[in-house]
Automatic annotation (TrEMBL):
It is an enzyme of class 3 (hydrolase). SUPFAM superfamilies: Uracil-DNA glycosylase-like. The keyword Transferase applies. It comes from Halolamina salifodinae. Keywords: 4Fe-4S, DNA damage, DNA repair, Hydrolase, Iron, Iron-sulfur, Metal-binding, Nucleotidyltransferase, Transferase. GO terms for molecular function: 4 iron, 4 sulfur cluster binding; metal ion binding; nucleotidyltransferase activity; uracil DNA N-glycosylase activity. Its EC number is 3.2.2.27. It catalyses: Hydrolyzes single-stranded DNA or mismatched double-stranded DNA and polynucleotides, releasing free uracil. The lineage of its organism: Archaea, Methanobacteriati, Methanobacteriota, Stenosarchaea group, Halobacteria. Belongs to the uracil-DNA glycosylase (UDG) superfamily. Type 4 (UDGa) family. Residues 27-181 form the Uracil-DNA glycosylase-like domain. This is Type-4 uracil-DNA glycosylase. GO terms for biological process: DNA repair.
Length: 198
């Protein structure tokens, strides 16, 4: 694997502030031909420590919603818009998102998923290239232009939103269940409709 397929970036110093704050580059995890890709914003403290996206409490919420939808974490690919932890967990700057965009585009081209689920405002706005009211639009499916490709995207709230606002739990788990169904990877009870039928 190498940086050209976006799966494993081993060295990169394009974002000076993030190079300063990171312990390591956190690449995506999961199958290289996954039907579903979950996209977050950036590694946080736990991800920076462990070298894997969405671990810690947000990861637990994601894992639980996946289980409820009949999926295991190992069935899906999980990655971030930027691969290095921003200082004090601030949002990545526009320039940093742009610096890392090529890796994300290469990763999505390599994996070629049925559906990308954007978890939270930053990844949703990054892929759709417009302002997104994520709580209101959660569960909607849209087409995004990513590099030379058109990609189906399902908008979702961030799993951490469910930790401080219980009313977001159903919003999040409904979005994940819908994503599993649309990508054709839901369990028997969740149905088997394909995106092409959507
Ligand atoms: S965030 Fe992406 S572009 Fe910036 S230094 Fe890390 S790997 Fe490179």
């Amino acid at each position: 694997m190498n940086a050209t397929d976006g799966l494993c970036v081993e060295s990169c110093e394009r974002c000076p502030a993030l190079v300063e704050s990171r312990s390591r580059i956190v690449n995506g995890v999961g199958p290289e031909d996954a039907d579903l890709v979950f996209l977050g914003e950036a590694p946080g403290e736990k991800e920076d420590e462990g070298g894997e996206p969405f671990v810690g409490r947000s990861g637990d919420v994601l894992d639980e919603a996946l289980r409820d939808a009949g999926l295991a974490r190992s069935d899906v690919r999980i990655t971030n818009c930027v691969r290095c932890r921003p200082p004090e967990n601030r949002d990545p700057h526009k320039e940093e998102l742009g610096n890392c965009r090529g890796y994300l585009e290469a990763e999505l081209e390599t994996v070629d998923p049925e559906l990308v689920v954007t978890m939270g405002k930053v990844p949703s706005e990054h892929l759709l290239d417009r302002g997104v009211a994520v709580t209101k639009e959660a569960g909607e499916v849209q087409d995004a232009r990513i590099g030379d490709r058109s990609q189906r995207v399902l908008l979702s709230v961030h799993p951490a939103a469910t930790l401080y606002d219980a009313s977001q739990r159903d919003t999040f788990s409904d979005a994940i269940a819908r994503a599993a169904e649309l990508a054709g990877v839901a369990d028997e009870e969740g149905g088997q409709s394909r995106l092409g039928d959507y």
